[in-house]
Design a protein that fits this description.
By secondary structure, the protein is mainly beta. 13% of the residues lie in helices and 43% in strands. It has one domain: Immunoglobulin-like. The chain is elongated, with a radius of gyration of 19 Å.
Amino acid sequence: MAQDRTMMKSDGREVEEYTHRVWPFRVQGETEDNQIAFPVDICETEDAFLLVGDLPGVTKEHLEVRLAENELTIKGTVKRDLDRQETAWIREVPGARYQRSFTLSDAVDPAKITAEMKDGVLRIRLAKAEHVKPREIEITG
């Protein structure tokens, strides 16, 4: 536990290195211009990793989840449509573009990734590869 507190006080590089030893993927925080790196929670069950992200205002139709090589990229867009008959005097609620990328390790089975979007919350289930799942060892003799 003392090591965890030390890691929390350390610079970002040490925290990233520690996190990569604990989690089977790396988080890419940088985005292109005008894009927001939305917040995520990452949890683990016995057979999968769960990534839950808040994407307020994004609909399923304006969401893209893509796996290329070992990089999982999530992009979403919020469209603000004004009636063409109206003149916008003040526009304080702009559209938004969200993006996050995660580099997956071989602990994730890429063929068993599923995604669900509901009420602005994206849930991605990353099934664990068989070689990292716990298993019972038969004792002989």
